[in-house]
Amino acid sequence: MSQPFRLNKEGLINRNKKISFTFNGKKLFGYEGDTIASALIANGIHLVGRSFKYHRPRGFFGAGVEEPNAKLQVEFNGHSEPNVNATEMELVEGLSATSQNCWPSVNFDVGAINNFLKMFFPAGFYYKTFMWPKSFWYKIYEPFIRKAAGLGVASIEKDKERYEHKFEYCDLLVTGSGPSGLASAYAAAKNGAKVILAEDKPRFGGTLLTDDVSIDNLSGKDWAEKIISELKSMPNVTVKNRSQVFGYYDHNMLVMFERVSDHLEKKSKFTPRQRLWYIRAKETILSTGSIERPIVFGNNDTPGIFLSAAAKEYMKVYGVLVGKKPLIFTNNDSAYETALEFKKNNVEPIILDTREEHSSELIDEAKSKGIDIRFSHGVIVANGYKKVKSAKIGKLNKDKNSFEKIEIVDCDCICVSGFWTPSVHLASQSGNKLKYEEKIDAFIPDKKKQHETSVGAANGSFTLEESLKHGFENGSNLSAKITETKTEISIPNVNEKKYGAHDKFWCMPLPKNENPKRFVDFQNDVSVSDIEIALREGYRSIEHVKRYTTLGMATDQGRTSNLNGLQLVSNIENKIVPEVGHTTFRPPFTPITIGTIVGREVGMEYMPTRKTPMHEWHEKNNAVFVDAGAWKRPRYYKEGNETLFEASKREAKNVRENVGICDVTTLGKIDIKGPDAAEFLNRVYTNAWMKLPIGKARYGLMLREDGIVMDDGTTTRISENHYHMTTTTAQAANVLSHLEYYLQIVWPELNVNVVSTTEQWAGAAIAGPKSRDMLSKLYPDLDVSNEALPFMGYKEAEFFGVPSRIFRISFSGELAYEINVKSDHGMFMWEKMMEVGKEFGNQPYGTEALSTLRIEMGHVAGPELDGRTIPSDVSLNGLVSKKKDFIGKNSLGREAFNVESRQKIVGLIPIDRKSSIPEGSHIVQDQNAKLPNPKLGHVSSSCWSVENNNPFSLAIMKDGKNMIGKKFFAVSPLKNKSIEVEVISSHYVDPEGKRVRS
Amino acid sequence: MLYIKCPYCGLRAQKEFSYGGDATVKRPNINEEVSSEDWDNFVYMRKSPRGKHIELWQHIAGCRQWIKVQRDTATHEIFQTAKVTEEIR
Ligand SMILES: [Zn+2]
A771-778 vs A826-837: helix axis angle to the nearest 10? Predict the structure, then answer.
């Protein structure tokens, strides 16, 4: 069980703990502290996936978030996750990883035939190829593309993991624990600021872990450890690893993704898998560092080709060699550090430097160590299909557009460096317009937009000395402004190697008659020729080129490809890069799980559930519930094998014949108090309110200022300056805000207070011809006769020792009452009613029966008051006062509201007296007319009339009242039904309203 | 997510508030004649400015007070907040 590419000593992994895992079914092992990538490379495995479009073999390219290729399907801790970055995912015991986007296997992939059918996949191939004929799209193209273009496979199992959200506030948020981040956090912490330091990787220190530097005579790694342990000991500092700040939103709100337990073999029950942090920071330090970019050359996607810094990180952090015969291909000095690291581990590299022969501290050191350096050289094309075997290299002429000499050298890996790109994503998301920095051929943040300050490599400073200095200064100054404390810190002495100037060279030319693919964007398979085609076809804006070629649109967001793409476009267009401009950076910086975004808001916790005090009784008595906003309301009480239709018919019939009770707790209730309460109601409602006596209720109608009906309900005068308003369940919150708006803003001179009391009262309606008999048993000492408690009357009385309010109001059209008791007594009231009501044939009824009762009476509700109807549309113009002013009155005079043929409410019955009319049906004259068939109205509510034993519907219909007696068709394309109907009055039962007054 | 300073409660997250439209619109007085043009302007006509906008928000999950907020509609920058009885200039 030896690992052929593992070094003996190097690295920060724990060699005392072996971790076993599988890759494509093969049993392997790594060590604690490995990523999947480092463990696979240690085992000599490089071929891990197939590319998106051409199914070309792909290996690892980076060592972290920049990785474009190595996305695996990973199974661990009992779930399967697609598109996991192998370079970021830490190894855990029992993990099993498999390659994606290949069939039947990564070694033999049928889709790779695409690679030989290149003409089939040029830029914009989706747009061009799959346009016609139309029928081919569904049958052939789409299934083919779906199969070919797949990344991993999302699990369809329920996610059993726990995800959490956390809200945090701080003075300074530091994003990244490299040298500048550590310095900023340290200086701010010393000033007493509340600091959060976030590091994406498991280890703190950033480049300090891999660069050959010293700070105050400590190695970079030791200095980072010292600072981190000091920060951890300070109560005003939160230090988080495995935590990536991925989004910068308005008003300095940043969002961080913490991987809490993915790296743990065992965790306690309530430990979340991942956590999302909403961090409101007063100031933000963006110390996100930089990412190396490649130089473009032929077949540059072959497995075994790495970014040079990644190769160094594999050696220094994981003790792993990416190859034993490396070619280092560079345009700058930083790759020399990789070469020296190879040399230190007894591997002989060859350096190909595009620059002409010159001297610098690093070059001199490499020379003195005897490393083979070839100036003015570069890799033209890599050879090898599943792994690099050799490279065709060339000596460039002075103009660097052709070759003086071409030869082939053997190698097993190529480490490429095309200089460094600052990670400006967060700065850009904050609104910062970036500026192009000629010196480093890349964009850096410009003037501050929010409270973001970029330091170190993220700001284009590539020396340790400068990064530390900026970090300490900015951390200190920004926090001092908040804490008003300034602690002097001496900036430590730094020992680092001086870099020479880099070469502004980013793409190798090709010799005549050679045309290997040169990839710019690996993850989306976008090559140089694809971008050339897009430009030849006339695409100019970089945003259009991006969408047409899909350059930079993969999940890696073009971290290693954007700038090379821009260079290519600007070269062809003869423009400079800043003129071409960059595309937009959008959160999240790297993909995050949906589970984290959702957090705990799943299942029952998706939204709050409101239950009435009688809920348990309903549950025990086979209620089937329906959601009414957040409320659960009994829809019907199921007896035996009853259907909804049968049960609601039974319940409604019982109300018409005997008596029923209904839980009406969910109705909105608003307490209105103050000397001007009557005046206020008079302005809010369309009808008159100044003369309502104490102890009386009145039905009221409320409009919006545009004249549309907003809500209806009864309001009762409890005492001189005290009213009790009810609203519909759905509009309760809106009505309260509406009242508050007028009291606080429009008429602050009115001395009135409003407060919601919905939760304070439990309510039950008692409805039916026997309701008075039942009431007299519930209140044996009270006179409940029609004279003592008439329609719209109100009384307060004890309900078996409990204070209660009795309203004689009716929604069902029957003789009815509504009893309110304090919520705590709701269950007591309900059970008493069930007990006392037995002898009168009382049954509970749900919302379905409630609807039936109100529909056949022609009482309007939500479906009729749908935000499009004015009072006269729904036969409520009798409630509109002509004498006084009220909210919305001026709008009722509008021309369109007063045309003769305006929509009005009517009733509909099917000619056959049998067919139910689906709600939402359109009313048309001729069911066979040519489309578009003129629509005369729509069916708003439907029921089975228990009074007449046939279907009945309410409809809102053009010129409605004049249509009574005529026949039409109610057509429902949704239900594929067309029913012949007759228009009748909307008041189908008891049109004179005798019962409620009886 | 915006961070709104309620003049009664202090800085609170946007999710505690609901938006209420242009705060500079004045409702015609009750019981007074109003031309249909003025009424239509009050009910329907709103400017949609790019830049500074004085608007109403209600602190529904807090003190339930309606407040005035001066916000940049393009950048979301909030310059000032005030009680509805106070002026924003
Ligand atoms: Zn408030």
Answer: 120
Distance, in Å, from the CA atom of A693 to the CA atom of A751, rounded to the nearest integer, reads 20
ipTM: 0.98
**Residue A175 lies inside a defined structural domain of this protein:** yes
> Hey, is A168 helix, strand or coil?
strand
Fold of B3-25+39-83: Folate-binding fold (3.30.2270)
Q: Do A744 and B36 count as a contact with CB atoms less than 8 A apart? A: no
Cα(A862)–Cα(A867) distance, integer angstroms: 9
For A247, nearest residue in chain B (alpha carbons): B1
Domain co-membership, A252 together with A192: yes
Spatial separation of the C-alpha atoms in residues A425 and A580, rounded to whole Å: 18
What is the pLDDT, as a whole number, of residue A554? 87
SS3 content of chain A, % helix, strand, coil (to 5): 30, 30, 45
Helical pair A308-318 and A334-344, crossing angle rounded to 10 deg: 40
CATH number of residue A39's parent domain = 3.10.20.440
Residues of chain A contacting residue B20, judged by C-beta atoms under 8 Å apart: 741
Confidence of residue A125 (pLDDT cuts 50, 70, 90): low
Only one residue has tokens 């228990």, namely A946
Residues A403, A432: one domain?
A: no
The helix/strand/coil state of A640 is coil
- Domains of chain B by residue range: 3-25+39-83
| Closest CA–CA distance from residue A897 to any residue of chain B (Å) | 14
Phi-psi region at A963: left, alpha or beta (left = phi > 0; alpha = psi -120 to 50) = alpha
Residue A768 to residue A657: CA distance in whole angstroms? 7
Which residues does A716 contact at the CB level (< 8 Å), separation at least 6? A696, A697, A698, A723, A724, A794, A807
pLDDT (tens digit per residue) in A838-886? 999 999 999 999 999 999 999 999 999 999 999 999 999 999 999 999 9
- For the stretch B30-68, pLDDT in tens is 999 999 999 999 999 999 999 999 999 999 999 999 999
Asked which of A453, A479, A495 is the last residue of a domain, the reply is A495
Pair A944, A645: CB distance under 8 Å: yes
Strands A71-76 and A57-58: unpaired
A181-205: pLDDT as tens digits: 999 999 999 999 999 999 999 999 9
Centre of ligand 1 from the C-alpha of residue B77, in Å: 19
Helix H or strand E segment including A651? helix A644-657
Contact B66 A741 (CB under 8 A): yes
State the distance from the centre of ligand 1 to the C-alpha of B17, rounded, in angstroms: 9
**In chain A, whose CA is at the least distance from the CA of B25?**
A746
Q: Point out the domain boundary residue: A495, A512, A546.
A: A495
For chain B, the helix, strand and coil percentages under 3-state DSSP, each to the nearest 5: 10, 35, 50
Lowest mean pLDDT: which of A117-121, A365-369, A412-416, A918-922?
A: A117-121
A948 Cβ contact list (under 8 Å, min separation 6) = A856, A988, A989
Q: What is the mean pLDDT of residues A383-389?
A: 95
| pLDDT-based confidence at residue A474 (cuts at 50, 70, 90) | very high
Q: How many domains does chain A have?
A: 4
